[in-house]
Every structure is written in structure tokens, then in C-alpha cells.
Amino acid sequence: MQLDFKTQTYDFELGHAQVVAGRHALSYGGNYRRNNFDISLAQGPDRTEYGAYGQWEYFVSKFRVAVGGRVDKFGNLDDPVFSPRVSVMFKPTPDQSVRASYNRAF
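^ thats the sequence. predicted structure below, dont judge the formating
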């Protein structure tokens, strides 16, 4: 039995980040990915993926708070998937940080 496998992946990503009013950082963007498969032992659909994300950060003195999320739509799933995230960071010195965070990822 011989396995022949060929794939083509096309990726496009766009993102931007900016500081607003000196203490707020906004980042946002999205991506598109197309996977084409040619597998000799199996037949399966090609897959298209879309995603978009956004994050807001607030920083003052030695503290930073971040809240964000990402939405992904995969061609093999019926519904989009939302992944939230939040974190709090304390930097006692420039070289050290303590972070507490929560996220849910797909």
C-alpha cells in the first residue's frame, strides 16, 4: 500500500496595533487560510478557515490589564467558535512580571 500526499496552503493575515491616549493599546486583525489536500488513501474535503481578533490593553505604572477575543470559522464546523481572554499583569521590576490570566481556546 502506497501513501501519496500533497497539500497546498494559502495564508493571508492582516493586523494592526496602536496606542490610544497614552495608556490604551488596541490590536485587531484577521486571517484567511485555504488548505487543498490530495491524499491517495482517503477522500476528504479541502478546508477554508477564517478568523478575526481584537484586544484592548490598559496600562498604568506597574500594572497592565488586557481583554480580548477571537472568532474562528472552520469549513468543517457548522458554527463559528469564540475564544475569550483576559489577563492582569504586575511588573515589580522591568525584568520581572507576575501574571494571572484566563482564556478559552479552540
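Residues 71 and 84 are 9 Å apart (CA to CA).
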